[in-house]
Amino acid sequence: MKQLIQRFLGSQGYEIRKVSDYKSQINLYTDIYPEDSLNNKRFYNIGAGGFSHPFWTNVDYDSEWYASNRAETFSGIHYDLFSLEPLPIDSEFAEIVYSSHTVEHIDNSAAQNMFNESYRILKPGGFLRITTPNIDLEYRAYRENDRNYFYWIEMYSIPKNWRRVKYNKPLNEASIEQIFLTHFASSVSTLHSDGASERIDDNDLKILFSELEYEKALNHCISKCPIEIQKKYPGNHMNWWNFRKMSSMLKEAGFTKIYLSGYGQSFCPILRDTALFDNTHPKISLYVEAIK
After folding, report:
1. Which CATH class is domain 2-134+241-291?
2. Is the pTM of this model over 0.70?
């Protein structure tokens, strides 16, 4: 059964690794960071889900959609990214802030506030690392009709899965336009059975990307995604990211040392542990790191 589960997860893009060796990792933490930072868990995972580590503090928001993560969510900081409020963390307190596949679920205002707050809470020299789907890769796949790129089609062609996310048909019956659209602006796709009042059909999408500049077309799509529907279906995507956009917003937050990274290629030794980090959909992800 364990092997079957691992094969399934691997087919959906999750990198299967052995569980992190906590003993060796603890030695790495103690070699680099002061005891006070370890005791006070000054390492923050925003949108942590089911993540668990003795030195890390989870920052996440409870919902029925992610009910299986409630124990980890309530053991950390319960925080709504859409609130645009300050994180309940002192300034220059954190050693590391990490966030994996979270910023595609929030709008630009919430993302900018998250970046601003990350800069504020980090100590000088502290690391911020963000991973998220790379829209440039997805757009290339859409334009070249590369359906194989969207490997989650198989998963969301299983009735219980496509019905759970409120699609009105399995993904293997959907057009590539709607498969592309639903991965960065879910609620405006014609696939969503309970989405936005104004939808973008296949012809609309083709016209948008033929008449508007690339990023303006993307922005038009996400501008139609209502926050109230996103809160109802927090597993939806409502934003797009590439290095240009993310680095621009990180600069606005105050970061000056920003660089494009890769899977397991962090400048921070702690974050190179791919049993814990960078293991969500590595085949399609953008990795960006900043140092305060």
Report:
1. alpha beta
2. yes
Position 25 scores a pLDDT of 82
pLDDT at 26: 87
Token representation of residue 107: 């709008």
C-alpha angle with apex 131: 129 to 137, nearest 5 degrees?
A: 140
Provide the pairing of β-strand 43-46 with 94-100. parallel
Please report, for the chain, the start and end positions of each structural domain, with discontinuous segments joined by +.
Answer: 2-134+241-291, 135-232
Q: Are strands 77-78 and 56-60 parallel, antiparallel or unpaired?
A: parallel
Burial zone of 67 (CB within 10 Å; 0-12 exposed, 13-18 middle, 19+ buried)? exposed
Alpha helices per DSSP H over the chain: 2-11, 22-32, 35-39, 70-74, 108-121, 135-143, 159-164, 176-182, 202-211, 214-223, 227-232, 243-253
Token pair for 58 = 């989870």
pLDDT digits (tens, 9 = 90+) for 80-125: 999 999 999 999 999 999 999 999 999 999 999 999 999 999 999 9
Backbone dihedral angles phi then psi of residue 132, each to the nearest 5 degrees: -165, 160
DSSP-derived pairing of the beta strands 94-100 and 122-133:
parallel
Q: What are the structure tokens assigned to 209, written together?
A: 């990307």
What's the pLDDT at 24?
60
pLDDT at 50 over 60: yes
Question: Rounded to the nearest 10 degrees, how much is the dihedral formed by the CA atoms of 13, 49, 247, 150?
Answer: 20
pLDDT of 67 > 90? The answer is no
